[in-house]
Design goal:
Blueprint lengths: L16 H17 L3 H31 L4 H30 L3 H8 L2 H11 L6 H19 L3 E3 L2 E3 L1 H5 L7 H17 L1 H21 L6 H7 L7 H14 L1 H15 L24 H15 L1 H12 L3 E2 L11 E5 L4 E5 L6 H23 L10 H14 L4 H5 L3 H31 L5 H15 L9 H4 L8 H5 L5 H19 L1 H13 L6 H7 L10 H21 L1
Parallel strand pairs: 3-5
Antiparallel strand pairs: 1-2, 4-5
The structure holds zinc ion.
The site of zinc ion (ZN) has 4 residues, from helix 15 and helix 16.
Length: 570
């Protein structure tokens, strides 16, 4: 494909919702009237291309909205789409019903696999018309939270900083600067607490009502369905959390104890946690363009497939990675299905998290690139998120051997810090998951009581956490910064489950690189064409819910970290 186009030049036209509804109705009629399998297949292909064009238009608006949150035009477009999208759903449901009832259903399943109808059944189960207006309100609340976060202008170090900007100071070598930055960060959330409490309260009520409209006690089962979970539920996740407490929390305690000694401080406070080394953490060896050039070189070295992919991303300007004012403070990967193109968004801040973007988000993008080229239908281009984060987190691990290119002499520091953060993240992530379960299950809690629940979870999952007399944080204020709690309910445990997969790939890569890479390619190419457990099995990845899985997955990383600490102690 040598078509010349770039993302910034792509034309955006507001999707005509009424026209799309009409077209879907016509498709539904054609499904019902199809007189041969070939005819049905043609209707299905037409439907796929209609959805793919619509989805791409929506995605362009949404990307441009995050690139400049103050741009009124895309703010409005984004709002328009969020409001209109749910109204299309009933038409898609009718279309899906027609497919389910078609006499050629079995043939379609034979051609594309059973996941197609598993997904249709799932969307049917999670849909009800009464939820449409609730979802519209939900989107508004999420937008408001995102806007408050994006509009952060924190006066610090003589500058006006957004949240990404201030986070960088948490790695400053001067402890008083770190403390000051943490206080300023905390102050931003505490000064917005009232509105955050209201937004969260309304989101809980809203989502629980959506769950009840579908016949559940609360939102949680619907949240699981929205994550595409078809072969595990709350019980399995609970068991996973127990394994985390048992096997990962003690390791993390040891890691922070060692860090305290390394830094030579009496207490390791929250503002010291990111300061892994007394003489400073690894920093990128060059500016943003330098890092991007190295990433391009790295992907060429990893494999021919990743080389082709990274050139495609550069050629079509599908990477928006540098930090600028008014950019949404987030990082993500998405796809433009009509162009078989991934897109990656982030805000570089010249810390090791820039490398994270270049490996993690581009790992997602590579998987999307492969799935879009290997899967026959739109529905299989993206996999459920509990698989997707294995792509990204494993790519972080594959990138370790190239750390010297990005960090020069500080490469070992990078590898240690990154691995420690990957491991210590898991208890935090698991707490984020349990927090959401508590909130949706106990809607009667007052906002202050909810925040106290976060405090209790810190005691359970992060017993090392100390806030140095910061009242707001001591009573649980840390959770407010976690955008996923507001915007992407029930998502967060995915990162913890997938860390297990990534750690397994790390070990396999050390033992047999070509086997590890071929399993990884299988995982990327398969896209969303299988269920969670089927996908894991297909790519030879352990089911993280099975007994002893957490212990096994994490052991190799734990050994590396503990060995490094012992060596440095000598
Ligand atoms: Zn990710």
């Amino acid at each position: 494909m040598t078509e010349k186009w770039t993302f910034p030049e792509l034309e955006y036209k507001r999707p005509d919702t009424e026209e799309i509804k009409n077209k879907i109705m016509k498709l539904t009629k054609r499904v019902k009237e199809a007189e041969s399998f070939e005819e049905l297949l043609q209707v299905y292909a037409d439907g796929d291309s209609l959805i793919s064009i619509y989805d791409s238009a929506c995605t362009i608006a949404s990307i441009r909205h995050t690139i400049d949150t103050s741009d009124k035009y895309y703010d409005e477009e984004n709002h328009f789409i969020e409001q209109e999208y749910p109204t299309i759903m009933p038409y898609i449901m009718d279309y899906n019903d027609a497919l389910l009832a078609s006499s050629y259903k079995d043939k379609l399943e034979e051609k594309y696999g059973k996941q197609l109808f598993t997904a249709i059944e799932l969307s049917k189960k999670s849909f009800c018309e009464a939820n449409i207006h609730l979802q519209q309100r939900e989107a508004e609340l999420c937008d408001e939270y995102q806007k408050i976060i994006a509009s952060a202008e924190i006066d610090f170090d003589g500058k006006k900083l957004n949240l990404y900007g201030i986070e960088k100071y948490l790695e400053n070598e001067d402890r008083s600067v770190r403390k000051g930055a943490f206080e300023a960060y905390s102050e931003f959330f505490s000064s917005n607490e009232k509105r955050f409490e209201e937004i969260w309260n309304e989101l809980i009520e809203n989502r629980n009502e959506q769950g009840r409209n579908l016949g559940y006690d609360n939102f949680i089962p619907l949240g699981y369905m929205n994550q595409g979970r078809t072969d595990y539920g709350e019980k399995e996740v609970e068991r996973f959390r127990e394994q985390v407490v048992e096997n990962i929390v003690p390791l993390c305690n040891d890691l922070y104890e060692a860090q305290k000694k390394r830094l030579g401080v009496d207490e390791l406070y929250s503002y010291d946690e990111k300061m892994v080394f007394p003489d400073g953490n690894a920093t990128p060896a060059g500016d943003d363009d330098y890092m991007m050039a190295k990433a391009q070189k790295m992907y060429h070295d990893i494999s021919p497939e990743t080389g082709e992919f990274v050139d495609f991303m550069m050629e079509h300007k599908l990477l928006d990675l540098k930090n600028r004012p008014k950019k949404a403070s987030t990082g993500y990967m998405t796809i433009l299905p009509d162009r078989l193109a991934p897109f990656v968004f982030s805000c570089f801040n010249h810390t090791i998290s820039d490398m994270q973007v270049l490996s993690h988000e581009l790992g997602h993008a590579f998987a999307g690139y492969e799935a879009m080229r290997n899967q026959p239908i739109f529905g299989y281009y993206m996999e459920s998120t509990d698989i997707a984060e294995i792509h990204s987190m494993s790519m972080e691990q594959f990138a370790y051997r190239y750390a010297d290119w990005f960090f020069g002499e500080q490469a070992d520091k990078y590898r240690f810090q990154h691995l420690q953060e990957a491991v210590t993240f898991v208890p935090f992530g698991t707490a984020v998951d349990e927090f959401q379960h508590i909130c949706y299950k106990n809607p009667e809690l007052t906002p202050k009581e909810r925040t106290m629940e976060w405090h209790k979870l810190e005691k359970k999952y992060m017993p090392w956490r100390k806030y140095d007399n910061n009242d707001f944080m001591e009573r649980g204020g840390w959770w407010y910064h976690k955008i996923h709690i507001f915007l992407y309910p029930m998502y967060y445990i995915n990162y913890c489950l997938t860390t297990m997969g990534a750690m397994e790939f790390k070990k396999k890569d050390a033992q047999d690189h070509s086997k590890a890479w071929s399993d990884y390619m299988k995982l990327c190419k398969v896209g969303g064409s299988m269920s969670y457990l089927e996908t894991l099995k297909y790519a030879n990845v352990t089911n993280p819910f099975s007994d002893g899985a957490v212990k096994n997955s994490i052991s190799y990383a734990g050994e590396i970290l503990e060995d490094t600490i012992r060596k440095n102690d000598k």
